[in-house]
Write a structure and sequence with these properties.
Oligomer: single chain
Largest sheet: 5 strands, parallel
CATH class of one domain: Alpha Beta
Shape: globular
Helix content: 25-40%
Family: Belongs to the aconitase/IPM isomerase family.
Structural class: alpha/beta
Subcellular location: Cytoplasm
Radius of gyration: 26 Å
GO molecular function, one term: metal ion binding
Keywords: 4Fe-4S, Cytoplasm, Iron, Iron-sulfur, Lyase, Metal-binding
Organism: Cinclus mexicanus
Distance between the termini: 55 Å
Mean pLDDT: 95
CATH superfamily of one domain: Aconitase, domain 3
CATH architecture of one domain: 2-Layer Sandwich
Number of strands: 25
CATH topology of one domain: Aconitase, domain 3
Length: about 700
């Protein structure tokens, strides 16, 4: 079918007429210039894909008339530019595609015609666990175990990468899905089939929203929706309201992007943005790096919005160059965005679009260092109040901010032995300290900040108790590269923060086992032990079954609390520790300033690093290269497999279209109250040995 909007197609460069784009500025409709930038992306996709079948001219008009239609619960189609998957949620999608090929073969068709139509990338990052830490070879040992545990899954995914067109698999050991997307996969502007158009993405992971920080509209969807998009179908979505979030002012010297996002999370939870887009604007946005913006966009699910969008500006363009993207393509990207009115100048208020009536404002100068916890990411606590807040939680009624510990047991102490030395645990003792998650490891400022703090701590004679499970799991190899080149990696290692793997790890509950003597002490004293992590979620049961309190914190604060060994400390009044000379060392003595961090970042975070790491990302993992994956175009299902089975969806499929059957007597499988999460229902970590699932798997060897 012909597209009714072809009259606005023109070449981006008259010298290269094959490269065309839909020039929305040629609509000559005053409503376009008033649309939020995120809605302009939806509009362009509708215009480009308008075929009067899947996308109709009426859909285009509804989006263009967003100011009126946003309140009318109108559904519109959206065809994203690409799909991104991680291995836990991606395996079922590839299984379904394999089953489709079988079905086509049985019906006498060509199975090789079954491929994703929309480009899809699958990043393997959810499989690795912190089994080993505080050792120079922890990384290799954890990766070896990862392959041992996941051999069947990895062979299947490698088969998929070879069998299907338009499906790229990023091997294990490469990084975390959203950081790899930010640093490598994202285009900002697509150059496909002779057309330029805005990059956009849906993913089978809720934190797909991280890419909104670069100006790529994206959010998480369910597996069925993702598969539909891969098969060329649009998403049907309610035209969203767009909350304008205005940022003004400059962050204080000691404030990190983590502090900013935890502040925004609490703020927007109070405002209520569920089912809406949040679009950031105002002069304060220009004070934030792309990594800062990506951190804020990453935690969009925690404040409840569908997407948290930062339109593309010159800082975005600079980030593309900094991360090693082709300069000529980057310049074409900028010219395209200028031509269609999608390049933002946050200091120019005349560019501010119309938002839904609700506009929220934050002065960045008012943000203070903070954490979130002990059970929810929206429960922000200023670092200066952490000790008091935790002690209040100890005695409070069981709930999000309470553990209901009897007052006479608040100061309980349990002695234990670890590696021949005697130690003590109490309520608030830190037993896990993890620098983890794409939320923060994608940000050089907080990672280098952690490294500089570690350097100053070691030079001041401070250490971390050996029973605390410390770990560093970067979101890409680039992080290790600049930590090593800047000279701070060895100081992180001295404090126990060796690289343990490239994946989500502690952030999703793959924190691995705690030492037995530590678990026994926690159990014996019924202690509220603590995990401190630079992740995005701290729901009860997520991080580790033995850490009832878990706090989200910036990477420098993770190290600070690891050194202190407890959450029950007032950094302003109490020392982090006392060195061998008897000198009290306070956090303020070793905390690096924003200027110090930026100086190191300018020197060591360079385009060459990104190019070197990502040029070989699909071939650098030797264990992956050595996997013996089948070469057939149809997958050979193993009937004895406990993991990968052919789904029954296509059993009985005929060439003649069958009438849908009525569903009768359907019933609710599970009904939950508020704040019951997938971490309670199906945690990503170890399967309990006494569970039915464990007994089944044991019976199958």
């Amino acid at each position: 079918m012909s597209n009714p909007f072809v009259q606005i197609v023109e070449p981006l460069d008259p010298k290269q007429p094959l490269k065309k784009f839909f020039n929305l500025s040629k609509l000559e409709d005053v409503r376009y210039a008033r649309l939020p930038f995120s809605i302009r992306v939806l509009l362009e996709a509708a215009i480009r894909n308008c075929d009067e079948f899947l996308v109709k001219k009426g859909d285009v008009e509804n989006i263009l008339n967003w100011k009126v239609m946003q309140h009318k619960n109108v559904e519109v189609p959206f065809k994203p530019a690409r799909v991104i998957l991680q291995d836990f949620t991606g395996v079922p999608a590839v299984v379904d595609f394999a089953a489709m090929r079988d079905a086509v073969k049985k019906l006498g068709g060509d199975p090789e015609k079954i491929n994703p139509i929309c480009p899809a990338d699958l990043v393997i990052d959810h499989s690795i666990q912190v089994d080993f830490n505080r050792q120079s070879d922890s990384l290799q040992k954890n990766q070896d175990l990862e392959f041992e545990r996941n051999k069947e899954r990895f062979e299947f995914l490698k088969w998929g990468s070879q069998a299907f067109k338009n499906l790229r698999i990023i091997p294990p050991g490469s990084g975390i899905i959203h950081q790899v997307n930010l640093e490598y996969l994202a285009r900002v502007v697509m150059d496909q089939d002779g057309y330029y158009y805005p990059d956009s993405v849906v993913g089978t992971d809720s934190h797909t929203t991280m890419i909104d920080g670069l100006g790529v509209l994206g959010w998480g969807v369910g597996g069925i929706e993702a598969e539909a998009v891969m098969l060329g179908q649009p998403i049907s979505m309610v035209l969203p309201e767009v909350v304008g979030y205005k940022l003004v002012g400059n962050p204080q010297q000691l404030v990190t992007s983590t502090d900013i996002v935890l502040t925004i999370t609490k703020h927007l939870r109070q405002v209520g943005v569920v089912g809406k887009f949040v679009e950031f604007f105002g002069p304060g946005v220009a004070q934030l790096s792309i990594a800062d913006r990506a951190t804020i966009a990453n935690m969009c699910p925690e404040y409840g919005a569908t997407a948290a969008y930062f339109p593309v500006d010159d800082i975005s363009i600079g980030y593309l160059i900094q991360t090693g993207r082709d300069k000529e393509k980057v310049m074409c990207t900028k010219r395209y965005l200028e031509a269609v009115g999608m390049l933002r100048d946050f200091k120019n208020s005349s560019q501010d679009p119309d938002f839904t009536q609700q506009v929220v404002e934050l002065d960045l100068h008012t943000v203070v260092p903070c954490c979130s916890g002990p059970k929810r990411p929206q429960d922000k606590v200023a670092v200066s109040d952490m000790k008091k807040d935790f002690e209040t939680c100890l005695g409070a009624k069981q709930g999000f901010k309470g553990f209901q510990i009897a007052p006479d047991r608040h100061n309980s102490i349990v002695k234990f032995n670890f590696e021949g030395r005697d130690f003590e645990l109490a309520h608030g003792s830190v037993v896990i300290a993890a620098i983890t998650s794409c939320t923060n490891t994608s940000n050089p400022s907080v990672m280098l900040g952690a490294g500089l703090l570690a350097k100053k701590a070691v030079e001041a004679g401070l250490t971390v108790k050996p029973y605390i499970k410390t770990s560093l799991s970067p979101g890409s190899g680039v992080v290790t590269y600049y930590l090593r080149e800047s000279g701070v990696m060895r100081y992180l290692s001295q404090l126990g923060f060796d690289v343990v793997g490239y994946g989500c790890m502690t952030c999703i509950g793959n924190s691995g086992p705690l030492p037995e003597s530590v678990v026994e002490a926690i159990t014996q004293g019924d202690l509220v032990a603590v995990g401190v992590l630079s992740g995005n979620r701290n729901f009860e049961g997520r991080v580790h079954p033995n850490t009832r309190a878990n706090y989200l914190a910036s990477p420098p604060l993770v190290i600070a609390y690891a050194i202190a060994g407890t959450i029950r400390i007032d950094f302003e009044k109490e020392p982090l520790g006392i060195n061998a000379s008897g000198k009290k060392i306070f956090l303020k003595d070793i905390w690096p300033t924003r200027n110090e961090i930026q100086a190191v970042e300018r020197q060591f975070v360079i385009p060459g690093m990104f190019k070197e790491v990502y040029e070989k990302i699909e071939t650098v993992n030797k264990a992956w290269n050595a996997l013996d994956a089948p070469s057939d175009k149809l997958y050979a299902w193993n009937p004895k497999s406990t993991y990968i089975k052919s789904p029954p969806f296509f059993d009985g499929l005929t060439l003649a279209l069958q009438t849908p059957k009525t569903i009768e007597d359907a019933y609710v499988l599970l009904s939950f109250g508020d704040s019951v999460t997938t971490d309670h229902i199906s945690p990503a970590g170890n399967i309990a040995r006494n569970s039915p699932a464990a007994r089944y798997l044991t019976s199958r060897g």
